[in-house]
Design a protein that fits this description.
alpha/beta, Rossmann fold, 6-stranded mixed sheet
């Protein structure tokens, strides 16, 4: 049993695109102070669930409970203001803008002083020193790993309580993934709750404390990540040769 209180609870979430339903009664609980993972193959509904959670899709049924408030129907800007930041698949930087301009875009809705924003920018640079080196460089000219750092840093600049990262490792080398994992673990030790959405089950389970397995728009298994890593069904379905 986790020692942390629930931070976000999804109950019976159904959602999709027009008449096409993708999510079927999804239940998921994220705990404050933890790194959680949502894993599954491509096309099972993970990104749809993240778009629903971020306000880009309005669910047709269910409840999104955040600190006692139902977030269903709120706009993406309102959900961001509640403290939920989403780093989307593909990074989606403003390619012609500098690294620092991209980072500052993450703080566009904040009302704090310039000094507070600068403090958080310095924190991003401390977490990802390479971004400080590239701060005047156009975001679109960086490597994939550097762009992912910038996308995560942009999410950090919104001062979230929950940071959602969709496909952390997509297209990146194992060394860069390891560096990103270490950065996220450091942020988590500072108190940031994180949800990693991943096809790379090994990376997700090694990084997280709690994990949910999605298939065909449903959560089909959940538990402690360390236990799921050794579950024969999970190893057979997702870990390939490592299951032997």
């Amino acid at each position: 049993m986790t020692q942390y209180p629930p931070l976000l609870e999804l109950t019976g979430i159904e959602a999709g695109y027009g008449e096409i339903n993708v999510l079927w009664g999804v239940d998921l609980t994220l705990f404050q102070g933890e790194i959680s993972a949502l894993v599954g193959s491509n096309g099972v509904g993970k990104s749809t669930l993240m778009r629903t959670l971020s306000g880009l899709i309005v669910p047709t049924a269910g409840r999104i409970d955040w600190a006692g408030e139902d977030l269903r129907g709120l706009s993406p800007a309102q959900i961001l203001a509640h403290g939920i930041a989403h780093v989307p698949e593909g990074r989606r930087l403003f390619s012609a803008m500098s690294v620092e301009e991209n980072l500052l875009m993450g703080a566009y809705a904040r009302k704090e002083s310039r000094a507070v924003i600068q403090r958080d920018l310095d924190r991003v640079y401390a977490t990802f020193p390479r971004l400080h080196e590239r701060r005047s460089q156009a975001g679109g000219t960086m490597s994939g790993g550097e762009q992912q750092m910038c996308a995560i840093g942009r999410g950090m600049m919104s001062a979230p309580r929950l940071l959602i990262i969709d496909e952390l490792s997509l297209g990146l080398s194992p060394l860069l993934v390891e560096q990103l994992v270490e950065a996220l673990q450091s942020l988590n030790r500072e108190g940031l709750s994180i949800l990693v959405v991943e096809q790379d089950v090994i990376t997700a389970l090694e990084l997280s404390t709690t994990a949910y397995v999605m298939d065909m728009g449903r959560i089909v298994q959940s538990g402690r990540s360390s236990e799921l890593m050794h579950d024969p069904a999970i190893r057979s379905a997702y870990l390939g040769a490592l299951a032997a």
